[in-house]
Structure formats: C-alpha cells, structure tokens
Amino acid sequence: MSNSLRELLELGQSVWLDLISRDLISSGTLARMIAEDGLRGMTSNPSIFQKAVSGNAYDEEIAALAAEGLDGTAIFDRLAVADVSAACDAFLPVYEESGGRDGFVSIEVSPDLAYDTGRTLDEARRLFAAVGRPNVLIKIPGTPEGLPAIYQALREGININITLLFSLEQYLAVADAYVRALEDRHAAGEPIDQAASVASFFVSRSDSLVDSLLDEKLEQAGEQERARLADLHGKLGVANSKIVYEHFAELLAGERWARLAAAGAPPQRVLWASTSTKNPAYRDVLYVEELIGPDTVNTLPEATYEAFKDHGVVARTVDRDLDAAHAHMEALAAAGIDIDAANAKLLADGVDLFIAAFDKAVDIVAGRRAELTGSAG
C-alpha cells in the first residue's frame, strides 16, 4: 500500500512532526510512525509543550521534582528536556542511518529572550548540553538580536533551528550566518561535516494576516477592483516560500558553498513551518503539496500529517511556477499591501504568542505542583 508521506522522501523532502508529548513517545506511537511512515524528525515549541503538560501525565515527575525544591519554571524545563531527550533517543537510528542528516528533535530557547543576544546564546549552550544528544536542534528566533547568537552558536558547533522566519530578508541573513560560521570553523581547522541547521520558514500565518488585509481593502473597493483583490487571497504563503527556495538553490549552486561542500558541509535545509491550513476554504494539505522538493523539510502538525498520509498528492512543486510567485508579490504591492510591515508584525506576534504559551505552560506546571504538594511554587 502506498504511503504519501514516505513518497516525499523519494523527492528529497523529509517529514518531521510538529508535536511532542510524553504519551506519544511512551505508547510506541512515535516508533510506529518512524517505521511505517518514514517520519524523520520532530519539532516542538512553547505552544506544543503547553498542550503536552495540560493533562496528568507528568504528575509523578512533577511531585518528585518538587520534592527536590524546584519551582514551576525549573520543573517545566526539566520536563521539556526529558521529553526531547527521549525523542532524540527514539530518532537516533534515523540520525545514524542518514549520516547525521535527519533524526533531529528541536527544543526552543525561552522566547522571552528573543531580543537579548547574550542570554539567548547562553540558553542555547545550556540546552544543548542539558539534552546532550547529537541529534538535538536548539531553536532560536530569527530576530535581529537572535542573528549574532545564531552565528556564534553555529560557530561553536551547536545544532540550530532558526525559527519564526517570515521574510526573504530574514532567510538570507540566516543563510549567511550559517555559511560564515562554517567558513570560520573550516578556516580554524575545525570539522564542518557534522554541522546541523535548518531555517524554519513560516507559511500559513502569512496568508492569514495578508488575507485579512485584503478583506479590509475589499470593503472599500469597486466591483472591478474587488475581483482583482479576491484573486490575491491564499497565495502569499506559497509564493513567498518558493522565492525563498529559489534563493536557497542559488546559494547551493554558488562557488562559496561549493568550497564548503567539498569539505563535507551539509546544507542548511529550508524547513516549512506553520503548514496547517488555517482557512477551511483552502485545501487541507495546500502547504504540503505546493512546497515539495529536494533538500527541504516540512514539519507537520498531527492533523495535517494524517490528512496528507490519506490523500496528499506527491510531485515536485517547490520550484514550479516561479514567475507566478514573483508576479504575485508584485500584485500584492500594487494593491497596496506592505509586505515588509506584514512580516514585521508576524515576527513580533510570533514572539508574543510563544512567550504567552511558555508562561502558560509554566503556570500549568506550577499549578500542578501546588496541587500535588499542597504548597505554592
């Protein structure tokens, strides 16, 4: 029986799961997904951990850690590190079989450090050491303040997943940081063949925001203009992503990368994130089917994962219709949509959402700690 998820690997795309929980790992479900579906990795973020700790699966561990005198924040950190470590162990055979190309699990630095370079770098170092697995990726937001930390962490040999990328400019800066870090390592005689990094480019959130901006313009438009504006809906996420991939491919074809590749450096793959379809009017696997191609990763939430497994169409699409992608960006600008402002808002909102989810997760853990021990903390 064919499996659309496995077929993606034949076209050079790895499927990662945008989900982590204690039960997923302990129940054997994760092992089954790896074996049957060819699942190649896993991502997490504060929102995912907030959902994971909302039940009672962690009560025994929370009580034990509370007995050690740990507060809610420290307990949450220990739970997250433990889950990511266990997931890394589950994916270790994939990591080894792929020569260190796949089998990664991501854990994010505290999002309230997104605008603090020094503390972000310190946290990345701490988490990398705490998990202590070769197949862990430390997630750092792609803010201007995050970029120096990203470069330095990569320079030190820390595996990095750069998250919350919305614009081409962000992507180009991140790609340059990766290349510079490897060039500097190579110049210093340090190995670069086991470097690991992905650039996580967010897709569906762009459509959600810009569609709402287009709707505002529709309310004021005449009949002819309304038809033109309506046709612009639901296309930015894919168009923006295809243009990013175009630049990624150009980077790999250049002399600068050729020198690093000759020394064994693996590419920093583009990872498509936020690939669930938010608008029910759009196909539920839109952001998977339209972004398939070599040297990419798509990290899928559970519902999208199951939907694509059931009815996804597999074909190389990521570098198809590039002229149309560029034309769409021009059409949005002509319609008065400020893409730069939209991307800046998406980044700021993304950081804020992750901070809120992180704080909520800590609050949940602190609440369970209080209930289990009869004391606040």
Break the fold down into its secondary structure elements and pairings.
Elements: H1 4-10, E1 13-18, H2 22-26, H3 29-37, E2 41-43, H4 46-52, H5 59-67, H6 72-97, E3 104-108, H7 117-131, E4 136-141, H8 146-155, E5 160-165, H9 168-187, E6 197-202, H10 204-220, H11 223-230, H12 236-252, H13 255-262, E7 269-273, H14 286-289, E8 296-300, H15 302-311, H16 322-334, H17 339-373
Parallel strand pairs: 1-2, 1-8, 2-3, 3-4, 4-5, 5-6, 6-7, 7-8
Structural key phrases:
globular; TIM Barrel; 58% helix; alpha/beta; 8-stranded parallel beta barrel; 377 residues
The secondary-structure class comes to alpha/beta
Main sheet attributes: strand count, strand direction, barrel closure: 8 strands, parallel, barrel
SSE sequence, one letter per element: HEHHEHHHEHEHEHEHHHHEHEHHH
Within CATH, the superfamily carries the name: Aldolase class I
The CATH architecture assignment turns out to be Alpha-Beta Barrel
Amino- and carboxy-terminal Cα gap: 52 Å
Determine the CATH topology: TIM Barrel
Tell me the name of the CATH class: Alpha Beta
Low-confidence stretches: none
Strand content: 5-15%
How many domain units?
Answer: 1
Total number of beta strands? 8
